[in-house]
Amino acid sequence: MAYVTVNVDIDEVLDNLYDDELEYLIKFLKEEGHLKDRSEPSPKSIMEMEWDEVCSKLQNSQLRLTAEEESIIKSIANRL
């Protein structure tokens, strides 16, 4: 069996697709698991949700923190 090698510039191919062809390609890539759908974020774990809640509380409570508490938080953040 004979094989033929063809050099194709993928950017050129993508730039020349019609809208419906591009939509078809995106749908195909999602169905094959190569592309995640942005409208469906992956669910957060309980630990991630707890972390988000803690960070939100910190962000909205700066004025209620003592100078020492604020210093501790800053030192942790600066270490990261």
Give the helix/strand layout.
Elements: H1 10-15, H2 19-31, H3 46-59, H4 67-79
List keywords for this structure.
single chain; 80 residues; mainly alpha; 4 helices
Helix content: 55-70%
Secondary-structure-based class equals: mainly alpha
How many DSSP helices? 4
- Uncertain ranges: none
Sequence of secondary-structure elements: HHHH
Q: Kindly, what is the distance between the CA atoms of the first and last residues, rounded to a whole number of angstroms?
A: 58 Å
Number of strands: 0
Strand content: under 5%
Alpha-carbon Rg, integer: 25 Å
Give the CA-based shape.
elongated
> Average pLDDT, to the nearest integer?
90
Major sheet: none
Short description:
The chain is an all-alpha fold. It has helices spanning 10-15, 19-31, 46-59, 67-79.
Describe, in plain words, how this protein is organized in 3D:
This protein is mainly α and 80 residues long. The protein has a domain at 46-79. It is 57% helix and 0% strand. It has four helices and no strands. The termini are far apart. The model has no long low-confidence stretch (mean pLDDT 90).
